[in-house]
Design brief:
nine-stranded antiparallel sheet
C-alpha cells in the first residue's frame, strides 16, 4: 500500500514539474507604430526574437531573467520580465500580441511560431 502512495506522489510531483512556463514562449516578429523605424527594419531584415521560459534571445544574444510571468491587473494583462529588483513589463493584447512601450514609440511583437 505504501508503494502505491509513493508512486502516486511521484506522479503528481512530475506532473506539476511539467506545468512550468508562462505560456508566451516562442518566436516573435517586431513591428512599430513609428513609420521611420519600420522602414529601417525592412531594410535590415525582419527583427525576430525568441522568448523562452526565463530568457529572451535576439540577434544571437541571450538575456537571462530571474523570472518571466504574467501579471493580471484590472487595466490588462502584462508579461513581466524580472531580474533582481528590476521589472520590465510588456502589455498583452487580446490577440496575444505583446506591446513594449518605449516612450516615443511602442514595439509590437506578434507570435509567428511556438
Amino acid at each position: 500500500m505504501k508503494y502505491i502512495k509513493y508512486v502516486a506522489v511521484l506522479l503528481v510531483v512530475l506532473g506539476l514539474a511539467g506545468c512550468g512556463g508562462h505560456g508566451y514562449e516562442g518566436h516573435y516578429v517586431s513591428t512599430s507604430d513609428n513609420k521611420v523605424f519600420n522602414a529601417f527594419s525592412e531594410l535590415a531584415g525582419v527583427k525576430k526574437i525568441y522568448i523562452g521560459e526565463n530568457f529572451i534571445e535576439a540577434d544571437g544574444q541571450r538575456t537571462q531573467f530571474d523570472e518571466i510571468f504574467v501579471r493580471e491587473l484590472k487595466s490588462g494583462d502584462f508579461l513581466v520580465f524580472k531580474s533582481g529588483n528590476d521589472e520590465q513589463t510588456w502589455e498583452i493584447d487580446e490577440d496575444g500580441t505583446l506591446v513594449r512601450d518605449l516612450g516615443l514609440m511602442s514595439l509590437r511583437f506578434e507570435r509567428v511560431e511556438k
